[in-house]
Write a structure and sequence with these properties.
single chain; 129 residues; mainly alpha; 5 helices
Length: 129
């Protein structure tokens, strides 16, 4: 069994979105303290649930990203893109409803939009060659 790296530009971009998702999940899973600080969050002293939630979320991202890389199917890339579309929509709701209008939220919104766009543009045929 050999490692598959796409040859078409569109699929390479979708692959990069999945790889970034897996990398972010790896960091969240194995360095939850750093990931939480990067996001401006902190776990309470003596309460391991915060770290557990961060590790669990990281495991989900890692599993989803690796699955998309290993399967390399349009439906998997579509699920990845749709998930990031919903995450971006939730962040917009948070910015508007939770008084979360700050630079970190806007930066993460842009990242989520890009991570959603790359696989979806490939799946729907907007990026060829």
């Amino acid at each position: 069994m050999e490692f598959y790296f796409p040859t078409e530009l569109g699929e390479q971009l979708a692959f990069c979105s999945a790889a970034f998702t897996a990398l972010a999940g790896f960091v969240m899973m194995f360095a939850p303290g750093h990931a939480l600080r990067l996001l401006g969050l902190q776990a309470r002293e003596g309460r391991p649930e915060g770290y557990g939630e961060a590790r669990s979320m990281g495991g989900f991202y890692l599993g989803f990203g690796v699955s998309a890389i290993m399967l390399a199917q349009d439906w998997t890339y579509m699920a990845l893109g749709a998930s990031f579309v919903m995450a971006a929509f939730a962040r917009i709701i948070s910015i508007l409803s939770d008084k979360g209008s700050n630079i970190v939220n806007y930066l993460l919104l842009v990242v989520q939009i890009v991570l959603a766009a790359l696989p979806l543009l490939y799946v729907f045929g907007f990026i060829q060659a």
